[in-house]
Amino acid sequence: MHTSLPAYQATLALCILVGASVWLATLSCAFFFRSRKKYSAPALSVLPPVTLLKPVCGLEKNLHANLRTACQQDYPEYQVVYSVQRADDPAIAVLRQLEQEFGTGRVTVVIANVEVGLNGKINNLAGALPHARHEILVISDSDVFLRPDFLREVTAPLADTKVGAVSTFFKGRDAGPWYEQMEQLSLNVDQFAMAMFASATGLVDFCFGASTAITKTQLAAIGGLEGLGDYLVEDNEMGQRIQRAGKKIVDIPYVVETTIDLSSPGHWWQKQTYWDQNTRVAVPAVFVASLLLRIIPLSLLFATLRGWDALGWSMFGAALGVRMAAVTAVLAVALRDYQGLRSMWLVPIKDVLSLVWFVRAFLTRTVVWRGVEMVLSSDGRLTPLEPKTTTKAEGAS
């Protein structure tokens, strides 16, 4: 019979209580976010022309449908630039179809093998940028589904000269097999919840890479795409540079949707490590503190150390209840993600496995993007896994 808590158990119990309090606060943020979503972009007398950049790499689930939404914006004058890096990219057929449907006045297809670093997305954008006709740029990933009001909402804050960039929140959709459902929960339950909490509290201020609005002038002022080419988390680096330049980053209460597209359970496992590597590199202090949020595995450990006595069971039950209540609030209230609600029974399993990904994020020094493996340095830069030529080394920024 335990009459008192040893120091290590007391420390573990304190960690669980701190994590639970953050999830309770996140539950409140979910209701706050829902009220903020009534926000609409300020009405501008003149809407400036915009170039929407869509870097594409290969065929993805729902690719045509997602890319087509870029051409269906309720906006008077805008250009859509679809870009690929390889002339044999199978997505080119889809891009040509959209170009034919909407015309070259609206759609520009770029095939350019430009390399400014090891970040494939940045290289793709570097090929697209010279073809952008307008000063205002909106960068949107290829797997993002855009509602017709997207351009109006994301560009409006740039009317304030103190704003350097605008970004939106994002959520996953269209998960199929169990491992895609796990991925969707990771994005919507964890990443979205923490982004929402960070934005509401002002603890972290950074760009969310799924969709970002910035001007050509501002991008040049922070070193251009060339300055971002070797960073794993280019959106975080962009945000830091904008803030150092004395400009604000605005995260509007607007959610875009990204399609979950994983080829296998192994692909899913790899992506979980990738997400934790992103967070560790972008906000290391927050990543370490995120251990406190894994209250289900922490409470399991506490209950096991207690021999599953009454206190152990009580702590586990309370942690499970708080965590699932926060999950329900984020999915049902903030996101209206009813598909996620149906698979939320996977959350405890995902949370236990998350301890493995947490450790792997520290121990794994390689990162895989689009099948290319690279080395991740301590400052968040990417380096070749095996330097091949001196030309490659000289070309890195």
Task: Please characterize this protein's 3D structure.
The protein is α/β, with parallel strands linked by helices. It has 2 domains: 7-34 and 293-384, no CATH class; 41-282, Alpha-Beta Complex (Spore Coat Polysaccharide Biosynthesis Protein SpsA, Chain A). Helix content is 48%, strand content 16%. It has 15 helices and 11 strands. The protein has helices at residues 7-36, 63-68, 92-102, 120-128, 150-155, 178-201, 216-221, 234-244, 265-282, 284-289, 295-305, 310-334, 338-342, 347-363, 390-395; strands at residues 50-55, 78-84, 107-111, 136-140, 144-145, 163-173, 211-215, 248-259, 366-369, 372-376, 382-384. The strands form 2 sheets. The protein has an 8-stranded mixed beta sheet with strand order 3-2-1-4-7-6-8-5, sandwiched between helices. It has a 3-stranded antiparallel beta sheet with strand order 9-10-11. Strand 10 and strand 11 (382-384) form a beta hairpin. The longest helix is centred in the N-terminal third of the chain and has 30 residues, at 7-36.
List descriptors.
single chain; 397 residues; alpha/beta; Spore Coat Polysaccharide Biosynthesis Protein SpsA, Chain A; 2 domains; eight-stranded mixed sheet; three-stranded antiparallel sheet; 15 helices; 11 strands; disordered C terminus
Low-pLDDT ranges: 388-397
Strand coverage percent: 15-25%
Give Rg in angstroms. 22 Å
Largest beta-sheet details: 8 strands, mixed
Mean pLDDT: 89
The outline comes out as globular
Largest sheet strand order: 3-2-1-4-7-6-8-5
SSE topology string: HEHEHEHEEHEHEHHEHHHHHHEEEH
Kindly report how far apart the N and C termini lie: 62 Å
How many domains make up the coordinates? 2
CATH C-level class of the largest domain: Alpha Beta
Q: Care to count the β-strands?
A: 11
Find the CATH superfamily of the largest domain: Spore Coat Polysaccharide Biosynthesis Protein SpsA, Chain A
Percent range of helical residues = 40-55%
Reported by name, the CATH topology of the largest domain is: Spore Coat Polysaccharide Biosynthesis Protein SpsA, Chain A
Which CATH architecture of the largest domain would you pick? Alpha-Beta Complex
Q: How many individual helices?
A: 15
Structural class: alpha/beta
